[in-house]
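hiii so um. not sure if this is the right channel but i have a protein structure encoded as tokens and i wanna go backwards to a sequence. like what aa goes where. can anyone help
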């Protein structure tokens, strides 16, 4: 055998090994997810007491686990995407931090009592038989999980809350008609499609403009950072203290408004005291460049992302297992319920483990989409997005506005991107530089005036936000509720016909 033939054979073997390795890696994630769903099924078999409908609780446990995987794969990207996109965290570090804090939030502060979405979306006094109620919840949960799975596959961050809402509405209409739905609540949810991203974008843009005015736009950036970065850290610690007290620690503590504000002021003071020496020590050897100033926001950004994950786990675990908890309560009590139900620890555990696994197995794709493919982020811009998310939720809660954390986070990214685009366009348009002096590209030295003008116009059309992502994400937001509703209605009618 010649040497060239041997080399070709070795290349074929090497290529086969690589292909085998890639195939094994692609199959590992679904395999691990399947093992988790089987474990959830076995857990439910032992946890649910025997009864004529206990088999439905076992099936619902598998559906809830599937939904938890999808919540982790899609929703968590909103918290970790900016930190990864800004290079403040590696993908591995983000997955570890998010998994730990999401699970901690779900297990430690997950709703002690879950006001199921059915209570708010179905007209009070609506009576559903026990079997009908269970099938409505199962159809809603499966439909929302399937939709979020599809959205994750195509790379669109969507609201899992809206998916569950659509599922309950669709299954409820299929079971009892259009009169069963509380349509004013649906109108409020639809309004959040506009309110959430606009508020998130405006607050993030205002914060970025403030940082540019006070720190990065100054001649002596280091001195300005010593003054203002501790103030911004204090703002962050105060806002997150209030955010966690009102949204992330409901199971442990529910303070009144005065206590919440006092808590925010106290933690703001502690944050300022801790940040002052830390910023000064790091700035002693720091160059007077924006890139070096941005590094001061790295640690605060990581802390903010971790706290957002904790609060998300505490709140959104109900999207995965809230309907399942209602199903378990209905089966064990023998009565269809659209009110408040207890959240057993084993049910919370399925949600917490599922979210963590979904994030680790399927989350990186959405994290990259949110953090890298909408607009370019650095530590400062990502910090603005994270702080805007917490502040927007607090403001909306105080005003009684329905908002989506997913829409807020993505809206914040759009906000900082469009603001930078505006600055870039304004600076280019107002630059007092002769046209011939702007083209230093060697390829354009001998260009005609028409070619030079065309090149200039092309540069002016340079955009810092990818428009196709804006349109595709907005479309996914709008379609989520009706798509989940239609799918849930079809599932309910099919399952009801099968069982009946």
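sure thing!! here u go:
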């Amino acid at each position: 055998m010649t040497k060239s033939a041997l080399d070709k054979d070795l290349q074929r073997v090497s290529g086969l090994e690589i292909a085998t390795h890639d195939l094994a890696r692609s199959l590992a994630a679904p395999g691990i997810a399947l093992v988790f769903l089987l474990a959830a099924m076995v857990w439910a078999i032992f946890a649910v007491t025997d009864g004529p409908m206990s088999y439905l609780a076992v099936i619902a446990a598998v559906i809830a686990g599937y939904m938890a995987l999808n919540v982790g794969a899609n929703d968590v990207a909103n918290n970790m995407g900016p930190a990864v996109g800004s290079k403040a965290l590696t993908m591995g570090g983000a997955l570890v931090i998010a998994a730990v804090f999401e699970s901690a939030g779900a297990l430690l502060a997950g709703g002690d009592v879950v006001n199921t979405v059915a209570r708010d979306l179905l007209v009070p006094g609506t009576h559903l038989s026990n079997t009908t109620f269970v099938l409505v919840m199962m159809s809603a949960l499966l439909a929302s999980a399937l939709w979020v799975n599809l959205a994750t596959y195509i790379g669109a961050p969507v609201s899992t809350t809206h998916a569950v809402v659509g599922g309950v509405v669709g299954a409820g209409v299929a079971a009892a008609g259009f009169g069963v739905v509380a349509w004013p609540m649906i109108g409020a949810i639809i309004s959040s499609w506009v309110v959430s991203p606009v508020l998130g974008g405006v607050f993030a843009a205002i914060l970025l403009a403030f940082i540019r005015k006070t720190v990065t736009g100054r001649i002596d950036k280091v001195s300005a950072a010593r003054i203002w970065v501790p103030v911004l850290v204090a703002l962050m610690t105060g806002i997150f203290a209030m955010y966690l007290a009102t949204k992330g620690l409901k199971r442990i503590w529910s303070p009144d408004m005065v206590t919440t504000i006092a808590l925010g002021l106290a933690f703001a003071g502690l944050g300022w005291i801790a940040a002052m020496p830390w910023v000064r020590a790091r700035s002693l050897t720091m160059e007077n460049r924006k890139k070096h100033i941005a590094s001061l926001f790295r640690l605060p950004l990581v802390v903010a992302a971790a706290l957002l994950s904790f609060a998300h786990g505490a709140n959104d675990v109900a999207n995965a297992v809230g309907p399942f908890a209602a199903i378990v309560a209905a089966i064990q009590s023998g009565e269809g319920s659209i009110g408040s139900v207890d959240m057993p620890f084993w049910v919370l555990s399925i949600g917490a483990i599922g979210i963590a696994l979904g994030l680790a197995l399927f989350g990186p794709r959405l994290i990259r989409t949110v953090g890298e493919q909408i607009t370019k982020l650095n530590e400062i811009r990502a910090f603005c997005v994270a702080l805007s998310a917490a502040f927007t939720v607090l403001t909306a809660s105080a005003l009684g506005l329905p908002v989506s954390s997913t829409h807020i986070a993505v809206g914040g990214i759009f906000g900082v991107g469009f603001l930078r685009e505006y600055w870039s366009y304004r600076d280019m348009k107002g630059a007092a530089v002769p046209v011939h002096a702007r083209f230093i590209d060697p390829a354009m030295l001998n260009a005609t005036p028409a070619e030079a003008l065309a090149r200039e116009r092309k540069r002016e059309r340079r955009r810092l936000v990818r428009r196709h992502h804006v349109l595709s994400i907005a479309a996914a937001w709008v379609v989520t509720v009706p798509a989940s509703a239609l799918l849930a209605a079809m599932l309910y009618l099919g399952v009801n016909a099968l069982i009946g």
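oh and Residues 33-430+463-499 form one domain.
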